[in-house]
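Task card 7
Instruction: Convert sequence to structure tokens.
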Amino acid sequence: MRTDDFVAVDMHVAFPFFNIAVPLRPVVDASDPMLEAISEFFEPDDDDTPFLVYSATPMPWIADRGWTLMGHPPFMLRPADPAEVPTPDGLEIVEVRDAVALEQFDATMVEAYPVPELAGRRTFRPGLLDLEGWHMFLGILDGKPVGTAAAHVTSTLVDVEWISTHPRARGKRIGEALTWAATLATPSCPPC
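Output:
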């Protein structure tokens, strides 16, 4: 859905990061009609599916709506400069290019992030691999998938998403290495 005030998608998945609204302007008052429109878009369903509002600016107090603040995800700018990328011992980072690797990515992200709400579900479909700009990476340690990272590259930015590291592999800079793989998916970007 796209309005003059926000864009939103509701995949009706029990993981809030797949049900999101993005305001296209600041929300400065809790009585802003945009918030009611967002609430109506995500009207409660039988599963009480959660959703997120991604705002690039601070939000007003929203607890009266029954909403909670999840945090402030970072919006970071990284100029296209050389990077010091770690190379953890035994880690192989492979780009996901086929349905088999995509299934591994899917299962690994669900287990490593973790996202128990998505266990047993297929989250990513093979068509995603055909979309322009998407790059997905799988971290393999001792022959087993242990982490994920993805990037969506546009003409103006690289959006890094789905960073995960399995608990058994944490503390080895694997998440950092995967994040760099996604960040540098198209080394000349930005600008592209």
